[in-house]
Amino acid sequence: MVVRRRLFRVYLVTVVGSLLVFTVAYDAGMTFFESRPRTFLEAFEVVMQTFTTTGYGQDAPWESPVMTFLVVGMQIASLLLIFAAFPIVIVPLVEDALSTSPPTGIDRADHVLICGSSSRTRTLLSDLDAQGVDGVVVEPDRERALDLHDQGHDVVHADPESVDALRDASVERATAVVADSDDEVDLSVIMAVGEVTADVPVYSVVEKPTLAPYHERAGATEAFSPRVLLGRGLANKVRNAVTTATGDNVDLGGGLEVAEFPIQPGSRLQGERISEVDIERQTGATLIGAWSNGEFRTPPFTDLVLDEHTVLLVIGTETALSGLKRRTLSEIRRYSRGEVIVVGFGVVGSTVDEVLAREDVPRTVVDLEERPGVDVVGDATDPGVLREAGVDEARTVILALDDDTTTLLATFVVREVNPDAEVIARADDVDNVKKLYRAGADYVLSLASVTGRLLASTILDEDVVSVDTQVEVVRLSAEPVAGQTIGDVELPPGVTVIAVEHRDGRISADVGDWTTLEATDELVVAGVDRDVGRIDLS
């Protein structure tokens, strides 16, 4: 849009300038070369006749070659300006006339108002839609608003900091408001919502955790810092990669836990075909699914070969999970606590460092800026900097950078410097998760997914068991499918039932297509965000 306006201004100046230059030149030429003086207005009329191709017969022909060349030059210039008008002026005007403008207001009730849009918005909208809740985005940027509108989302093109705009978006009848923009803008949004209504809860997403108290003081019901949660999630994976403990798993209750275990190079399971490994018989844990090169697969997947890019999702008791964990660790350094390299020392990286410090895990921190806590200063994509930090001998490298493109390049460089290192990466955008896996990352956790799950579970009071894992584990009431077997329940591809919780609190992981569901049961299902968001049991 900005480029288009700039081109239009240049074109307008060029047209006006050409008219004036040719008018002066024609006036002078008729006086000195043709001896037929013309007034400035008469000369301007001839130039306009030429530029508009309507003719100029009253002065033709011209005896002077100079005037002939001048007139020919005017004709060529007029043709060039006419052709240039199509892409610069006419086509954009037609496109604007035919395009659908996003609405500036909406009459709605019981909706969730999302002020601002980001990569996290898509996950939140998907979760809201899965629960039958309308999500309305208030977006000040017209192009973004139009894009969301074209995708079929409810959107209001307006400034979310404006009280009038919030009223036009029916904020007083909303279920909740989510402020998801810059921290300063979110603060203004919170105040604006408070001017309209005090009955609607407001949830804000803060980039800087230190600002959360100010958001709550301004009127936010709760201020979330997903980067801190993401850092803790990554730190748990780092801790799992360097210790034999099973780490912070998803506790389902009843002694059952859900855990993710990466297959490490040199482990007993590396190179084995999944059909040849009887995990349940060997350890007592039940295989739910597996990440392989960025794709989440659920059983049956007998052709899957376990390698360093495979992450197993399993359910079982702590003893069973510990037994499986030992099989996924490297035989060579199974019980060592190797050096960890933390690349990036922002909110996510500093959170990782803090968690690992409490666990007394040796680590080296790399960042572009020199500040307390940073051991090596330099570019994460520079092999020399990574070698200086000890990446060539490290057991685990965690990439906590705030730019996905840089993270992608850094993954390639880490793999070149140390092909055997465990690479655990942060991604801001869900769409970049697969790219990072293809680049060689062993585990990737998306900020957008963590934020979307956190907000959806809070707003909808949805029982999301864990929000800081690759896979979403959710409890759902079985009442809509009471009397049916699990095999009869239609679930999206990529979603699997991992357990059933009964009315008395017992949780059974020994379930299959034959298991009959009762109205008081709860299904515990697992899958990636986009698939879990499509569940419809009604």
What descriptors fit this protein?
17 helices, alpha/beta, Helix Hairpins, single chain, Alpha-Beta Plaits, 19% strand, 6-stranded parallel beta sheet
Brief overview:
With 538 residues, the protein is an alpha/beta fold.
How would you portray this structure in words?
With 538 residues, the protein is α/β, with parallel strands linked by helices. 40% of the residues lie in helices and 19% in strands. It is built from 17 helices and 22 strands. The chain has a 6-stranded parallel sheet, with helices on both faces. Strands 14-13-12-15-16-17 form a 6-stranded parallel sheet, sandwiched between helices. A 5-stranded antiparallel sheet has the order 7-8-11-9-10, covered by helices on one side. α14 links the parallel β15 (396-399) and β16 (422-427). The protein starts with a helix and ends in a 6-residue tail after the last helix.
Average of pLDDT: 82
- Strand order in space, largest sheet: 3-2-1-4-5-6
How many DSSP E strands?
Answer: 22
Taken from the alpha-carbon principal axes, the silhouette is elongated
Distance between the termini: 44 Å
Q: What would the CATH topology of the largest domain be? A: Rossmann fold
The gyration radius over C-alpha positions equals 32 Å
Q: What would you call the quaternary organization?
A: single chain
Q: Into which percentage range does the β-strand content fall? A: 15-25%
Secondary-structure map:
Blueprint lengths: L1 H31 L7 H12 L13 H34 L12 E5 L3 H12 L3 E6 L2 H9 L3 E4 L5 H6 L7 E4 L3 H14 L5 E4 L6 H7 L3 E3 L1 H17 L7 E4 L2 E7 L16 H5 L2 E7 L2 E3 L12 E7 L1 H11 L11 E4 L3 H12 L4 E5 L8 E2 L5 H7 L6 E4 L4 H14 L4 E6 L5 H7 L3 E4 H13 L4 E3 L5 E6 L18 E6 L5 E2 L13 E6 L1 H4 L6
Helix pairs in contact: 1-2, 1-3, 4-16, 9-12, 9-16
